[in-house]
């Protein structure tokens, strides 16, 4: 074992590094409270309008607080630059910047998840607007007249959003798993995924199915307990619905993959610079096309293969029919509705 090298001391005469200043956060909260009070006291406004404006003030206050915390953290991190190089370790901040407090982000997120259902409850109860949780194969309505259900909707919708984001990252890591010298965007993808980006390709390919099936099992069980879903019948029905939910989760890959392919086509014929983003688009597009082997559709010097892939992806995610041929999502929906 070798001893950990001591941290470099600041140069003589340098001002000591100060922690984050909290007075701007307090000022934002005070201004937000004043804005809410002003909105509620404005005469000749309907209560519905006041509630909408109140929700907007709350959202703007929390957004401003999060933006300030993020800006302050970046300011602190810039004082201590991490090691250079092209390795993954080169993208990680130094130990000094890692000691910057990170709990305010978690506290702000907890506040957002707590205040948002209150806003939904207030606005939805007055306007009579129900919230809906789209789970792909089924959409579950949440009545705004029950505060407990608004909390469930807030938590489930947030988990669905974050889960979809990580499914996108998993897709990019899977397609570029053989890239030995990643660009800045791909390094960030791998950094966010952590251990998952080092998992075998077959396991990364199973992540959407496992995540979608697991999320449906958890959500359906909770909603059955609170009376929002009827019992699903036999264990075979539960298993088939979990499999359908897992299969439908793969459609979360359609939008990012189609978007990257369209950008890849544009970048192939129009010079858009040498930014890391376009390097990432080029690398991901080539990796996607390499899955087809030597199969290509060309008209002259124009490669139409990426556009053909986009059409195939669109048809897989299409919830309707093209003539008598149902789209991929339509097949799953029909199979779901036939289960009893």
Task: Show the helix and strand layout.
Layout: H1 23-41, H2 47-78, H3 95-98, H4 103-127, E1 131-134, E2 139-142, H5 147-175, H6 184-193, H7 201-225, H8 235-249, H9 254-269, H10 276-290, E3 298-299, E4 302-303, H11 305-317, E5 321-322, E6 325-326, H12 328-337
Antiparallel strand pairs: 1-2, 3-4, 5-6
Helix pairs in contact: 1-2, 2-4, 4-5, 5-6, 5-7, 7-8, 8-12, 9-10, 9-11
Enumerate the strands of the largest sheet in spatial order, edge to edge or round the barrel.
Answer: 1-2
Q: Largest beta sheet, briefly?
A: 2 strands, antiparallel
Helix and strand content put the structural class at: mainly alpha
| Terminus-to-terminus distance | 62 Å
Mean pLDDT: 74
Low-confidence stretches: 1-10, 17-21, 38-46, 60-65, 71-98
- DSSP summary: helix tally: 12
User: What portion of residues belong to β-strands?
Assistant: under 5%
Q: Supply the number of structural domains.
A: 2
State the helicity in percent bands: 55-70%
Shape: globular
What is the count of β-strands?
6
Order of helices and strands: HHHHEEHHHHHHEEHEEH
Rg value: 25 Å
């Amino acid at each position: 074992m070798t001893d950990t090298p001591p941290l470099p001391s600041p140069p003589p005469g340098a001002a000591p590094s100060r922690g984050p200043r909290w007075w701007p956060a307090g000022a934002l909260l005070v201004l937000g409270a004043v804005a809410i009070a002003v909105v509620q006291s404005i005469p000749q406004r309907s209560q519905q309008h006041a509630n909408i404006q109140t929700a907007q003030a709350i959202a703007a206050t929390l957004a401003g607080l999060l933006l300030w915390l993020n800006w302050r953290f970046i300011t602190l991190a810039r004082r201590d630059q991490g090691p250079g190089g092209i390795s993954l370790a080169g993208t990680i901040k130094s130990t000094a910047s890692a000691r910057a407090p990170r709990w305010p982000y978690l506290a702000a997120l907890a506040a957002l998840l707590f205040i948002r259902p209150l806003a939904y409850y207030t606005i939805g109860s007055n306007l009579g607007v129900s919230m809906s949780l789209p789970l792909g194969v089924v959409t579950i309505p949440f009545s705004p007249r029950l505060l407990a259900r608004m909390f469930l909707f807030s938590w489930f919708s947030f988990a669905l959003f974050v889960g979809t984001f990580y499914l996108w990252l998993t897709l990019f890591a899977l397609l570029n798993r053989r890239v030995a010298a990643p660009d800045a965007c791909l390094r960030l993808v791998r950094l966010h995924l952590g251990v998952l980006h080092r998992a075998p390709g077959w396991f990364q390919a199973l992540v959407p199915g496992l995540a979608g099936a697991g999320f449906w099992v958890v959500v359906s069980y909770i909603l059955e307990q609170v009376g929002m879903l009827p019992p699903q019948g036999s264990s075979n029905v539960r298993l088939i619905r979990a499999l359908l939910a897992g299969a439908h989760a793969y459609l979360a890959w359609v939008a990012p993959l189609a978007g990257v392919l369209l950008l890849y086509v544009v970048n192939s014929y129009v010079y858009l610079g040498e930014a890391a983003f376009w390097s990432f688009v080029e690398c991901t597009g080539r990796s996607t096309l390499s899955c087809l082997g030597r199969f290509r559709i060309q008209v002259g010097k124009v490669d139409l293969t990426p556009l053909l892939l986009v059409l195939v992806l669109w048809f897989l995610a299409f919830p309707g029919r093209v003539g008598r041929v149902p789209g991929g999502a339509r097949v799953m929906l029909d199979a779901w509705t036939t289960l009893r």
